[in-house]
Amino acid sequence: MREIVKKILEVVGSKDIVFIGTEEQDGIKTIKPDEIELYPKKFENIIVDDIEQLDEEKMRKLAEMSDCVWVLLSIDKFIRKIDSSIEDMIGKGEFKNVSIQEKVEILKNLMKGNAYIANFNLPDLAIAISKERGKIPSEIRSEPLTSFFFNLSMVEYLKSKLEEVKRERELIEKELEREKEKSRFLNNELEKIIKEKDALAKERRNAEKRWRREITKMLKERKAIEENYKREREKFQNELESLNKSYNEERARLQKEIEKINKEKDALAKEMNVKLEEMKRNYELERKKLIINFGKQIKEKEEQIKKMNKSYDLEKKAIEERFGEELKKIVIEMGLKLEEKEKELKRLKGE
């Protein structure tokens, strides 16, 4: 439960009281703003959370339901609305009442009563609107609503104007300080520029003198170079003519030599062709002779090979026959020796 609601309940009690708002409050019946017209019952006290949510018809119903209505008011929210109205007045030249104030005035007129500010030393206040026959506890009557709104508006307006003047003064002082700093900076820069200008002027004069000396020297050197170039060019021209003459003479001589060599080359080529034809003929004759001789040699070799094969076969047969006879002899001798060994063995066993 909100502290402001607790304070109101401590003053008026928790019987025959209802809370109108969107949030439920513990220990007190809560009615949503859209449900006001559904309650025909009257209450001794009604607490309204946000009167700006109620239109004129709902406020008319509210005036019929109770003799005392408590409208909760957030100081911060109310001051923001006052600031907005002041800005409109400054910007557009017209002052508009705060909607909360308008709603309270409408409800007060509908109830034909008076409105007072109940201050419980909390961030939120309560506006108590009571019919003429109703009673508001004397301990919470602080001041009439109209004087409160007026005083609060004037105080906030003057505070805002004072803050605005302070901000403008600070901005002007900062701007003045920036201008002073800028002026000092510009003066320093101007002094630097003047010094640099004098130094550059002096350097320019010295440079002009140096350039004049350099230009005079360069002109003299250029004249000497041109004269030297002229002499060298004439010398080169003479040498070139001499070289061209020598080249033409040597070229003519070489041309004659080439013609002579070409003639000798043609004669030598003819001679070489004749010799080459003769060599070809000799080569063919020698080739034929070699082929014939080689054929005869091959036949002779083949005859020799045949004779050698025949001789080999005869020798092989003779060796096989001789080896067979010797093998038989060896077998017979081994058989005899074996019999003797067996006899000797039997004799030894008998003993």
Could you characterize what this model shows?
- This protein has a domain at 3-141: Rossmann fold.
- The protein has 5 helices and 7 strands.
- Strand 5 (113-118) and strand 6 form a beta hairpin.
- The protein has 351 residues and is an alpha/beta fold.
- A 7-stranded mixed sheet has the order 2-1-3-4-6-5-7, with helices on both faces.
- Helix content is 73%, strand content 11%.
- The termini are far apart.
- It is flat and about 165 Å long.
- It has helices at residues 3-12, 56-65, 75-92, 99-111, 145-350, and strands at residues 17-20, 29-31, 43-48, 66-74, 113-118, 124-131, 143-144.
Q: What is the topology, as strand order, of the major beta sheet?
A: 2-1-3-4-6-5-7
The dominant shape is: flat
Question: What is the first-to-last residue Cα distance?
Answer: 146 Å
Coarse structural class? alpha/beta
> What's the Cα radius of gyration?
72 Å
The pLDDT mean sits at 76
CATH topology name of the domain at 3-141, in short, is Rossmann fold
Strand content: 5-15%
The tally of beta strands, per DSSP, is: 7
- What's the number of helices? 5
Elements, N to C (H/E): HEEEHEHHEEEH
Q: Major β-sheet, in short?
A: 7 strands, mixed
Overall CATH class of the domain at 3-141 = Alpha Beta
The stretches of 5 or more residues where confidence is low (pLDDT under 50) are 93-98, 149-158
Q: Portion of residues in helices?
A: over 70%
Identify the CATH architecture of the domain at 3-141.
3-Layer(aba) Sandwich
